[in-house]
Design goal:
Structural class: mainly alpha
Shape: elongated
Number of strands: 0
Strand content: under 5%
Helix content: 25-40%
Distance between the termini: 109 Å
Largest sheet: none
Order of helices and strands: HHH
Number of helices: 3
Length: 139
């Protein structure tokens, strides 16, 4: 019996999904009938139906497993995520230090850091003329 009596291009639908076998990419599966990107995975099951290179997203973060550096962790997609998180940690620590310093009044001033005692005796090695030969006397 012709399922589409008014459509001369279709006559069978083996999987009874409403899409004729001539147009059905998956004629034996009622769950699939179209594969827009041609990757062999039907559009209904394909998370990225228009990207041939991307088929799956195991962690559901919207980044395909083929490009996701952390395919099982939905909170991270790339090493940039790690960098941003580390940066935020250091920013938080810096903010906490500033908050404590202002709250307790223990802010270190510049003069405390600049007044390091260093005797002239320790600087002798830097004041000696160089022992390297001069290019002026080179013949």
């Amino acid at each position: 019996m012709d399922v589409w009596p008014f459509d001369a291009t279709e006559c069978y639908d083996r999987d009874f999904d409403g899409v004729g076998d001539n147009q059905d990419i998956f004629p034996d599966s009622a769950l699939e009938w179209l594969d827009s990107d041609g990757d062999g995975l039907g559009d209904n099951a394909d998370v990225f139906p228009f990207d041939k290179e991307a088929k799956y997203d195991a962690d559901g973060d919207g980044v395909p497993d083929s490009t996701d550096l952390f395919p099982r962790n939905s909170g991270m997609d790339s090493f940039l995520d790690i960098g941003w998180r580390i940066g935020l940690v250091f920013l938080g620590i810096g903010g906490l230090v500033l908050f404590i310093q202002r709250r307790t009044g223990t802010v270190l001033e510049d003069k405390e850091w600049n007044h390091q005692s260093m005797s002239d005796e320790g600087m002798e090695q830097f004041n000696r003329p160089s022992m390297a030969p001069s290019l002026e006397n080179f013949e």
